[in-house]
Amino acid sequence: MTAFVPVVLAALLVAACGGGDEADRERVRAAVPCEDGAPIGRAEVLRALRAHGFSAQARRCEVTNVPAGGTAPASLLADEGVVSCVVRRQSPAGAPTEAALLDREGGDGRYALANVECSIFAEGDERHVRRLERALAELERAVE
Q1: Cα–Cα distance measured from residue 71 to residue 88, given in angstroms and rounded to the nearest whole number
Q2: Percentage of residues in the chain with pLDDT exceeding 70?
Q3: Average pLDDT of every residue of the chain
Q4: Is the peptide bond before 67 cis (omega within 30 degrees of 0)?
Q5: Which residues contact 50 (CB under 8 A, 6 or more apart)?
Q6: Mean pLDDT throughout 113-130?
Q7: Does any domain span residue 42?
Q8: Dist CA 62 CA 34 (whole Å)
Q9: Number of separate domains in the chain
Q10: What's the pLDDT at 27?
Protein backbone atom coordinates (compact mmCIF):
# COMPACT_ATOMS: atom_id res chain seq x y z
CA MET A 1 0.00 0.00 0.00
CA THR A 2 2.79 2.49 0.83
CA ALA A 3 4.39 2.00 -2.60
CA PHE A 4 1.06 2.88 -4.17
CA VAL A 5 0.88 6.36 -2.54
CA PRO A 6 3.85 7.92 -4.44
CA VAL A 7 2.45 6.66 -7.75
CA VAL A 8 -0.95 8.21 -7.02
CA LEU A 9 0.66 11.49 -5.94
CA ALA A 10 2.74 11.64 -9.12
CA ALA A 11 -0.34 10.99 -11.25
CA LEU A 12 -2.24 13.76 -9.46
CA LEU A 13 0.61 16.22 -10.04
CA VAL A 14 0.74 15.43 -13.76
CA ALA A 15 -3.02 15.80 -14.03
CA ALA A 16 -3.05 19.08 -12.10
CA CYS A 17 -0.06 20.65 -13.85
CA GLY A 18 -0.72 19.27 -17.28
CA GLY A 19 1.84 17.71 -19.55
CA GLY A 20 2.32 20.89 -21.59
CA ASP A 21 2.41 21.04 -25.35
CA GLU A 22 5.44 20.51 -27.57
CA ALA A 23 6.12 24.28 -27.78
CA ASP A 24 6.31 24.46 -23.96
CA ARG A 25 8.68 21.49 -23.83
CA GLU A 26 10.86 23.04 -26.56
CA ARG A 27 11.08 26.35 -24.64
CA VAL A 28 12.22 24.45 -21.56
CA ARG A 29 14.82 22.49 -23.57
CA ALA A 30 16.13 25.71 -25.12
CA ALA A 31 16.50 27.31 -21.69
CA VAL A 32 18.50 24.39 -20.26
CA PRO A 33 22.23 25.00 -20.64
CA CYS A 34 24.18 22.29 -22.40
CA GLU A 35 27.70 21.57 -23.51
CA ASP A 36 27.29 21.57 -27.28
CA GLY A 37 25.15 24.50 -28.24
CA ALA A 38 24.13 25.87 -31.60
CA PRO A 39 24.89 28.09 -33.36
CA ILE A 40 27.80 28.62 -30.93
CA GLY A 41 29.36 25.63 -29.20
CA ARG A 42 31.27 25.49 -25.95
CA ALA A 43 34.55 24.84 -27.80
CA GLU A 44 34.11 28.04 -29.85
CA VAL A 45 33.52 30.10 -26.70
CA LEU A 46 36.59 28.55 -25.07
CA ARG A 47 38.77 29.33 -28.11
CA ALA A 48 37.52 32.91 -28.39
CA LEU A 49 38.08 33.70 -24.72
CA ARG A 50 41.57 32.20 -24.75
CA ALA A 51 42.44 34.05 -27.98
CA HIS A 52 41.61 37.29 -26.20
CA GLY A 53 43.75 36.64 -23.14
CA PHE A 54 41.42 34.92 -20.70
CA SER A 55 42.70 31.78 -18.96
CA ALA A 56 39.39 30.08 -19.66
CA GLN A 57 38.43 26.49 -19.04
CA ALA A 58 35.28 24.58 -19.89
CA ARG A 59 33.11 22.96 -17.26
CA ARG A 60 29.92 21.29 -18.41
CA CYS A 61 27.83 24.14 -19.83
CA GLU A 62 30.04 26.97 -18.65
CA VAL A 63 33.27 28.50 -19.87
CA THR A 64 35.00 30.49 -17.15
CA ASN A 65 38.39 31.58 -15.92
CA VAL A 66 37.55 30.76 -12.30
CA PRO A 67 39.48 27.69 -11.09
CA ALA A 68 37.55 24.46 -10.49
CA GLY A 69 37.28 25.05 -6.73
CA GLY A 70 35.08 28.07 -7.42
CA THR A 71 37.35 30.56 -5.67
CA ALA A 72 39.13 33.07 -7.86
CA PRO A 73 42.55 34.21 -6.67
CA ALA A 74 42.85 37.95 -6.08
CA SER A 75 45.30 38.23 -8.97
CA LEU A 76 42.68 36.94 -11.42
CA LEU A 77 40.49 40.00 -10.94
CA ALA A 78 43.42 42.32 -11.56
CA ASP A 79 44.93 40.33 -14.44
CA GLU A 80 41.80 39.35 -16.41
CA GLY A 81 38.62 40.11 -14.57
CA VAL A 82 36.30 37.24 -13.69
CA VAL A 83 34.50 35.89 -16.77
CA SER A 84 31.72 33.33 -16.99
CA CYS A 85 29.86 32.28 -20.15
CA VAL A 86 26.93 29.87 -20.22
CA VAL A 87 26.28 27.97 -23.45
CA ARG A 88 22.71 26.87 -24.06
CA ARG A 89 21.63 24.07 -26.36
CA GLN A 90 20.00 26.57 -28.73
CA SER A 91 19.12 30.22 -28.90
CA PRO A 92 16.01 31.23 -26.98
CA ALA A 93 13.31 33.06 -28.92
CA GLY A 94 14.33 36.64 -29.59
CA ALA A 95 18.00 36.07 -28.77
CA PRO A 96 20.30 38.68 -30.33
CA THR A 97 22.37 37.73 -33.39
CA GLU A 98 24.92 40.40 -32.52
CA ALA A 99 26.53 40.74 -29.09
CA ALA A 100 24.13 42.74 -26.95
CA LEU A 101 24.83 44.43 -23.65
CA LEU A 102 22.14 43.28 -21.20
CA ASP A 103 23.36 45.06 -18.10
CA ARG A 104 26.26 47.30 -17.18
CA GLU A 105 27.17 48.47 -13.73
CA GLY A 106 30.51 50.12 -13.11
CA GLY A 107 33.19 47.92 -14.64
CA ASP A 108 30.96 44.86 -14.77
CA GLY A 109 28.85 43.74 -17.69
CA ARG A 110 26.46 41.04 -18.89
CA TYR A 111 26.16 40.21 -22.58
CA ALA A 112 24.06 37.90 -24.74
CA LEU A 113 24.72 36.50 -28.20
CA ALA A 114 22.50 33.80 -29.70
CA ASN A 115 22.74 30.85 -27.28
CA VAL A 116 25.56 32.31 -25.14
CA GLU A 117 25.37 34.64 -22.15
CA CYS A 118 28.55 36.05 -20.61
CA SER A 119 29.23 38.07 -17.48
CA ILE A 120 32.41 39.88 -16.52
CA PHE A 121 33.40 41.35 -13.18
CA ALA A 122 36.29 43.70 -13.82
CA GLU A 123 36.14 46.26 -10.98
CA GLY A 124 36.22 49.16 -13.39
CA ASP A 125 39.06 47.89 -15.60
CA GLU A 126 37.71 48.61 -19.08
CA ARG A 127 40.56 46.67 -20.73
CA HIS A 128 39.04 43.40 -19.54
CA VAL A 129 35.55 44.40 -20.67
CA ARG A 130 36.87 45.36 -24.12
CA ARG A 131 38.63 41.98 -24.45
CA LEU A 132 35.36 40.18 -23.73
CA GLU A 133 33.59 42.38 -26.26
CA ARG A 134 36.22 41.49 -28.89
CA ALA A 135 35.81 37.78 -28.10
CA LEU A 136 32.03 38.12 -28.55
CA ALA A 137 32.52 39.99 -31.82
CA GLU A 138 34.58 37.04 -33.03
CA LEU A 139 31.77 34.66 -32.02
CA GLU A 140 29.24 36.73 -33.99
CA ARG A 141 30.66 35.20 -37.17
CA ALA A 142 29.29 31.81 -36.09
CA VAL A 143 25.79 33.29 -35.99
CA GLU A 144 25.86 34.86 -39.48
Answers
A1: 24
A2: 76
A3: 80
A4: no
A5: 56
A6: 93
A7: yes
A8: 8
A9: 1
A10: 56
Q: Do 92 and 38 contact (CB within 8 A), yes or no?
A: no
Query: SS3 for the chain, per residue?
Result: CCCHHHHHHHHHHHHHHCCCCHHHHHHHHHHCECCCCECCCHHHHHHHHHHCCCCCEEECCEEECCCCCCCCCHHHHHHCCEEEEEEECECCCCCCCCCEEEEEECCEEEEEECCEEEEEECCCCHHHHHHHHHHHHHHHHHHC
113: pLDDT confidence band, cut at 50, 70 and 90? Answer: very high
Structure confidence by residue, pLDDT tens digits, 125-142: 899 999 999 999 999 988
Inter-residue contact 142 to 131 (CB < 8 Å): no
In a domain, 82, yes or no: yes
Residues spanned by the domain of 85: 33-143
Q: Is 130 part of a structural domain of the chain?
A: yes
- Distance between CA atoms of residues 144 and 134, nearest Å: 16
Rounded Cα distance between 113 and 120, Å, is 14
On whether the CB atoms of residues 118 and 136 are closer than 8 A, the answer is yes
Residue 112 vs residues 15, 55, 134: alpha-carbon distances, Å: 37, 20, 13
